[in-house]
Design goal:
The complex is a heterodimer of chains A (305) and B (738). With 305 residues, chain A is an alpha/beta fold. Chain A has two domains: 238 residues, Alpha-Beta Barrel (TIM Barrel), CATH 3.20.20; 56 residues, Alpha-Beta Plaits (2-Layer Sandwich). Chain A has eleven helices and 13 strands. Chain A has a nine-stranded mixed sheet. In chain A, strands 3-6 form a two-stranded antiparallel sheet. The longest helix of chain A is centred in the middle third of the chain and has 13 residues. Chain A is globular and about 65 Å long. The mean pLDDT of chain A is 93. Chain B has 28 helices and 15 strands. By secondary structure, chain B is an alpha/beta fold. In chain B, helix 3 runs parallel beside helix 7, helix 8 packs across helix 9 and helix 16 crosses helix 17. The model of chain B has no long low-confidence stretch (mean pLDDT 94). Among the domains of chain B are: 199 residues, no CATH class; 234 residues, no CATH class. Classes of the chains: A alpha/beta (305), B alpha/beta (738). The interface between A and B is medium-sized, with 21 and 28 residues.
Chain lengths: 305, 738
């Protein structure tokens, strides 16, 4: 690439000390935008590729700084009560910038590859002692392909271990391009039933499966990441399907079971979304049970993520 | 010792031992009766040379105290069970009063403490014997060596009156110890015979053994350590701030025990259980220190079978005390480190990880040889001392936030209204941030200078109040020089000055720089008035400052560099300044509980802190202000220069259980310790809780009897804290969960 044209991505979080996103202590870079629309999504703020504004009323101190900052009249104070009307909002972030109570926050901002890499590299001493590195997650990192490729390439040039957390829904040629830059794919499998997959995620399963087979065949190291929601995608047939995939594909080293957590629910309100899926937290033994059921059907390592 | 299976049955009795001791009144007086008897004749020993006078008091206590050999115990019972009401302090306080009358600045000390510009107290009892030597000598050997030294002084013509008094004090004390041990042994033999109890016979034999010679088994060694501790700490009023490098010092005896069949592994484990129960029963708030590990001269680890055994038994008892420091290096076996980390994660022991590379570098920078650094003792919470050659006192705790209050108020303390600081100019006259910063530095410098002046007045007189008759003969240099071991008889006699609230002070200074001098949101005079009103009417400004990310602990290079400069500045007021005991002052960033106590006396500060709130602990960020996670915290902390803090340099890490669950979690904790070690850190310890767990524990204490949290260099039961302290822990947990 041309060094004079910096590549920007919409990044919504850079999480340090991530220890469940690949080996060792890692920094996980979360990108906005996802082609899937999973029923239970625990990062609903990552679906939309654009910058968004979150507002948490309980933190508002009613100072009116947002009212003054907004050029579109989205914020108003009525009897000391703050009303945020999103209809005219263009997500410029001016209100968030002025909200020192941190009630309004901008979710996602354009960041240049070099700037993100610099932040990731700050924790290099921890990667060295733990065998960790950088993970790119989302959203779906492939949705910001150019940024993802460049960040991976430059991280690799710095000698970092790289992992890519992907839902598998992207053109195969792009995975081919990333193959030499990724040490570990964290590959999401939501269900192995094609009809269910379309119902639960809004997208077909074929491309995801063919990309997985392609990566395995091309020598990639893969951990399957399986979010399991009680009564939604944890039928015997679906668990068996995961085990079959793991057994058949040489590249799959591990299956990671991720029990449902209603993290997305509290975020829905502050993002101004319509109410989404909500179910109780499964009991602690749920993860163990699911892990054991899949493990009974495959020789590959199966564990809770 | 053969397996008895009696420990479980004995444990409740052991737990009560130091709380409600069971004594035979026919053997002597209770703790309180001895205190009353001493109070009635408190001036009787004033005219004797102090070491002799104290030795006579020691004799009075030992010869008159009731004793017992508990049927449920391997260690004898002393009437002097209550370390908060030790009999000698009746006389010590009397002698201290005599000293105070001679101190020119005694009232200034009291006033400074009242205002909270510092907390200054006389440290009369904070020492560690040379355990290597004493374990080779036993009680008789210690006295014999002292008498040989006395003869040498006589031959050299250096046995002047002071030296004679010094040796007389030791001789009277150790002869009394011999006599007392005989009382214990005779009682044990009599009771063993009367009740046909072979165990008490064994107790008797172990006491006689260490009375007459060096310990030759694990049980004898533990008996010796316990007895030394009791004679020194409970009777001679001289704390034993470490039970020693237990795995290294005792491994030879352990191997001999097993090889000769004198004892079994099971028997040794049980010995340690009874031994640890003594301190569990004593239940000092700050715990009883001891340490494990280290590095041999050939570079290999000191971790051995006994290290694992000790961890096992601590875990089994879920013992908060003894608290163990673990010397960690690149050579430390992973299995050991991981076992210790897993125990910390499960909150079932009070452990701190001491990183040798950084510690050695600091000790060598302050005068230790490589060998002295390698073999150093770990004492108290995480402090280090040269084994057998050093004694460090802790003197003044400097309140850094009070200095900021003084600078804002031209030397007046806004809480008490007294002119307690320097006149560095009214806020209206401090035109630039540099003017303000210079005023703060001058205020700190003045507080430190006063603390040193006052300390120098009393430190030459330590042995006039509490001569160290039990401790002195354990130190070779003390015998060689005939100088009191605690006061000035060590090779290294340092005095610690502890700085309280460093991170909060950094946050406060940066807030002043930004909001007063850069943004001009308020003037310094307005800010002063707002703070003196405890933020009343300025809540929005307070919220804004609290939410400003410009805080220490977040790995922000600009902030951390400022913090490093500031720390170097105030540490430089202290390090290397000669003290009055032939050594020098040393800066420490360890706060003990003073971050809470001094916080209560300190008004609102520019970082957003309210009047009375606690300030930052150790070198940690202000509570709730570290929002970037543990890696950023470690980067911030290791930007400070540990060489500035030869007193100690501890890092507190709080983690959520969910983030460190499973094998990956343990590996991550291991990597944190190793990274901190590679970045020249010294001590690192953990609190691992979820806010939900703490909130539940506050609501239902009965369900969380065993829940321990780490305070400073020690653990305490969550249930034992007051609500305000509990709330602070919950707030910390909520902050990292956010």
């Amino acid at each position: 690439m041309n060094a004079s044209t910096p590549i920007h991505g919409i990044v919504f979080d850079i999480l340090k000390f991530a220890i469940h996103d690949g080996p060792g202590i890692r920094t996980t870079v979360f990108l906005k935008g996802c082609p899937l629309n999973c029923l239970w999504c625990h990062n609903p703020e990552s679906k939309d590729a654009r910058v968004e504004i979150s507002y948490l009323a309980t933190k508002c101190v009613g100072c009116g700084a947002c009212v003054a900052a907004c050029t579109r009249g989205c914020h108003r104070l009525t009897d000391g009560m703050h009303i945020y009307d999103r209809t005219a909002c263009v997500r410029c972030g001016g209100c968030a910038e002025n909200c020192y109570a941190r009630a309004i926050e901008q979710v996602g901002r354009p960041r240049e590859v070099g700037e993100v890499l610099a932040e990731v590299l700050r924790d290099r001493p921890f990667y060295e002692t733990s065998g960790g590195g950088m993970t790119i997650s989302g959203g779906e990192p492939m949705a910001q392909f150019e940024f993802t490729r460049e960040l991976l390439a430059r991280a690799r040039a710095e000698g970092l271990h790289t992992a890519l957390d992907t839902c598998g829904f992207a053109p195969q040629a792009r995975y081919a391009e990333l193959l030499p830059l990724v040490d570990l794919f964290l590959y999401d499998i939501k269900t192995t039933n094609p009809d269910r997959h379309r119902e639960l995620t809004g997208r077909p399963l074929d491309l995801i499966h063919s990309n997985l087979r392609f990566l395995s065949g091309a020598g990639a190291r893969i951990f399957l990441r399986c979010p399991l929601v009680p009564g939604v995608n944890d039928s015997d047939a679906e668990l068996a399907g995961i085990a079959v995939l793991a057994s058949e594909l040489e590249g799959v080293e591990e299956v990671n079971v991720e029990p449902y957590h209603p993290l997305g629910v509290s975020k829905t309100e502050r993002m101004g979304y319509a109410e989404g899926y909500s179910a109780p937290i499964p009991p602690p033994e749920y993860a163990q049970k699911m892990t054991a059921r899949i493990a009974a059907l495959t020789a590959k390592t199966v564990r809770r993520s | 010792m053969k397996k008895t299976n009696r420990f479980d049955e004995d444990q409740p009795f052991l737990l009560r031992k130091f709380r409600e001791p069971v004594l035979d009144p026919s053997t002597g007086m209770t703790n309180e009766e001895i205190r009353q008897a001493l109070a009635a004749r408190v001036s009787d020993w004033d005219d004797l040379p102090r070491p002799v006078g104290k030795a006579r008091v020691f004799e009075f206590i030992c010869d008159n105290m009731a004793i017992a050999i508990g049927p449920h115990d391997l260690f004898p019972t002393f009437a002097c069970h209550n370390r908060h009401r030790r009999p000698f302090d009746v006389v010590k306080n009397h002698w201290d009063g005599i000293l105070n009358q001679r101190l020119k600045h005694w009232n200034d000390i009291l006033e400074g403490n009242r205002v909270g510009r510092f907390m200054l107290w006389k440290d009369f009892d904070h020492s560690v014997p040379d355990w290597d030597d004493t374990l080779r000598l036993g009680f008789a050997g210690i006295l014999r060596r002292a008498m040989e030294a006395k003869a040498q002084h006589a031959a050299n013509g250096t046995l002047d009156d002071d030296a004679r008094a010094y040796f007389d004090g030791i001789e009277i004390t150790y002869r009394c110890i011999h006599r007392t041990l005989t009382r214990f042994a005779d009682l044990a033999r009599a009771e063993a015979a009367a009740e046909d109890d072979p165990r008490r016979l064994r107790v008797a034999a172990s006491i006689e053994a260490v009375r007459d010679r060096e310990p030759r088994s694990i049980y004898e060694a533990l008996q010796f350590i316990y007895l030394y501790f009791m004679f020194s700490e409970h009777i001679d009023f001289m704390q034993v701030r470490s039970l020693g490098n237990m795995d290294r010092q005792l491994i030879g005896l352990y191997e001999d025990d097993l090889r000769t069949g004198r004892d079994t592994e099971e028997g040794v484990r049980e010995c340690f259980d009874y031994f640890f129960m003594q301190w569990i029963s004593i239940n000092n708030y700050w715990g009883q220190p001891a340490y494990l590990g280290g590095t041999k001269a050939d570079g290999s680890t000191e971790i051995n079978a006994l290290s694992y055994l000790i961890l096992d038994e601590l875990g089994k008892l879920r013992a908060m005390t003894p608290k163990f420091q673990l010397k960690i290096n690149h050579n430390t076996p992973r299995a050991f480190l991981r076992r210790a980390l897993a125990m910390v994660r499960d909150h079932n022991a009070s452990l701190v990880f001491i990183c040798e590379p950084g510690l050695w570098r600091i000790l060598m920078a302050h005068g230790a040889s490589a060998e002295e650094a390698r073999t150093c003792d770990i004492r108290g919470c995480y402090e280090a001392g040269i084994l057998g050659k050093s004694n460090g006192t802790g003197s003044a705790h400097i309140n850094l936030l009070k200095a900021i209050e003084f600078a804002l108020n031209n030397g007046t303390d806004p809480v008490s209204g007294t002119k307690a600081g320097l006149e560095t100019g009214e806020a209206e006259s401090l035109a630039t941030f540099d003017d303000f910063y210079a005023a703060v530095c001058r205020q700190i410098g003045k507080t430190v200078a006063d603390g040193i002046t006052y300390t120098n007045e009393y430190e030459p007189c330590l042995e006039q109040v509490n001569p160290a008759n039990v401790f002195s003969p354990t130190i070779r240099n003390s015998l060689r020089t005939a100088r009191d071991g605690f006061a000035r008889g060590c090779v290294y006699n340092s005095t610690g000055i502890l700085f309280i609230g460093a991170a909060t002070a950094v946050d406060a200074l940066l807030a002043v720089r930004k909001y007063v001098y850069e943004l001009g949101v308020v003037s310094l005079a307005e800010l002063r008035d707002i703070l003196n009103r405890n933020w009343e009417g300025a809540e929005k400004l307070r919220t804004r400052i609290l939410n400003d990310p410009l805080k220490y602990g977040n790995g922000i290079p600009e902030v951390d560099a400022f913090a490093a400069d500031f720390c170097h500045t105030f540490a430089s007021f202290v390090n290397g300044v000669p003290n009055a005991r032939g050594g020098c002052y040393r800066a420490s960033i360890h706060t003990a509980r003073q971050f809470i106590e001094l916080g209560k006396r300190t008004g609102a500060t520019p970082d957003g802190r309210a009047f009375g709130d606690e300030m930052s602990k150790n070198a940690s960020p202000t509570m709730g202000m570290d929002r970037q996670g543990v890696t950023a915290l470690i980067r911030s902390m290791t930007t400070l220069n540990p060489l500035d803090f030869p007193g100690d340099f501890p890092l507190d890490v709080m983690l959520l259980p969910a983030t460190v669950r499973g094998e990956e979690g343990l590996e991550a904790m291991e990597a944190l310790v190793k990274t901190y070690m590679e970045r020249s850190g010294w001590a690192i310890h953990f609190n691992i809780f979820s806010p939900e767990e703490l909130i539940e524990a506050q609501k239902h204490p009965e369900k969380y009897e065993g829940l321990q949290v780490r305070v400073c260099g020690w653990n305490t039961r969550f249930n034992d804290m007051d609500k305000r302290e509990q709330d602070a822990y919950i707030a910390r947990a909520l902050n990292i969960a956010d």
